[in-house]
Write a structure and sequence with these properties.
Layout: H1 3-15, H2 18-25, H3 29-43, E1 48-50, E2 55-57, H4 59-82, E3 91-97, H5 99-106, H6 110-116, E4 120-126, E5 140-144, E6 152-159, E7 162-166, H7 168-174, E8 188-190, H8 194-197, E9 199-203, E10 208-212, E11 217-218, H9 222-230, E12 235-239, H10 240-249, E13 253-255, E14 260-262, E15 270-276, H11 283-299, H12 305-308, E16 312-314
Parallel strand pairs: 3-4, 3-5, 8-11, 8-12
Antiparallel strand pairs: 1-2, 5-15, 6-15, 6-16, 7-12, 7-13, 9-10, 9-14
Length: 317
């Protein structure tokens, strides 16, 4: 088994074809075919199903890719860490984030990062659903709330508080909300995610309260929820990094500030930087992590030591 054969295998699997992989690797198609045949022979399994039109991974090939691709990334990252001039970042950095986080936190601060690293190309995959970092060849992702089991590694960027918010016009027209139970008589806008969809949990110094929400409006994008709140559609739970500025300028009001929102899950309510499992982070990933921490430090006046010096956690733990 040779490194070059593994490199060809990953390229064919991720690009989706022998010819396109050959073009990307600047190799002859016959050399790519021969490398895959030699690898399959050494492993004793078939990695690809081949037809005249398509190339698809077998079940064994999919399993092998999930184990090999992160390991190869670790080797490349370890080699990169030894190169001089790592401050001059180059290549492509692929980042996954939610639309709301990208617009609220990343975009307003991105110019300085780009000016500091002019040779680095950045590709953002913005989605409110979680994508597969391995198959999409993503270098890092920013994720919210609880983390499901996986082979990924996460660093806490910040602890997030959720605020119950509404427009002043809505509050004036629909009546006061002085206790969480009052929400049953109000129009609640919710995410179609289990943690916030049907039950909202509140805590105060004296008690806890779980409210069953009858939501007639479910919106998968936090920016649209925020816009709907400001337009007087209803009340919602939104992250502090999204709404603190709106609360300060009066376009939203913070309801029940004496109550905190409790989010289910062992990892609690937080922003996480998630990367494929690896021992060595490439310099470009480390630089973008530092950029995110700096951007968030301007949002959170109470920026904690934990977010300044995050510790890796295995999401499996």
């Amino acid at each position: 088994m040779q490194w070059s054969h593994l490199n060809v295998f990953v390229a064919v699997a991720q690009i989706g074809g022998f010819k396109h992989a050959a073009d990307a690797l600047d190799m002859a198609p016959s050399s790519v075919t021969r490398a895959i045949a030699n690898l399959e022979k050494s492993l004793g399994v078939r990695l690809f199903q081949r037809t005249t039109r398509n190339v698809a991974l077998t079940e064994a090939g999919e399993k092998f890719l999930k184990q090999v691709a992160p390991a190869m990334d670790e080797v490349r990252a370890a080699a990169d860490s030894l190169k001089p001039g790592t401050d001059n970042l180059s290549g492509t950095l692929k980042v996954s984030a939610s639309v709301a986080f990208a617009e609220t936190i990343i975009a307003p601060n991105l110019a300085d990062f780009c000016d500091s690293h002019p040779q680095l190309e950045i590709e953002f995959l913005l989605s409110d659903t979680r994508i597969d970092l391995i198959s999409e060849r993503v270098d890092l992702a920013v994720r919210h709330g609880g983390l499901e089991d996986s082979s990924l590694v996460a660093q806490r960027l910040a602890t997030v508080n959720y605020h119950l918010v509404a427009s002043r016009e809505y509050a004036d027209q629909k009546g006061p909300i002085t206790h969480p139970q009052d929400l049953v008589d109000h129009r609640c806008l919710s995410f179609p995610y289990p943690v916030f969809q049907n039950n909202w949990c509140f805590e105060s110094d004296r008690s806890t309260c779980e409210v069953e929400i009858e939501s007639s409006i479910k919106i998968s994008n936090a920016l649209t929820i925020a816009a709907s709140v400001k337009a007087g559609v209803g009340v919602a739970l939104l992250a502090d990094w999204m709404v603190d500025k709106d609360i300060a300028n009066g376009s939203m009001i913070h309801l029940l500030p004496e109550w905190s929102v409790r989010v289910a899950g062992s990892t609690g309510s937080a922003l996480w930087l998630v990367t494929p499992s690896r021992a060595f982070l490439p310099a470009k990933v480390t630089a973008f992590r530092d950029f995110l921490q700096s951007a968030l430090s301007h949002v959170y006046k109470r920026h904690s030591d934990e977010s300044k010096n995050p510790k890796d956690i295995d999401i499996n733990s």
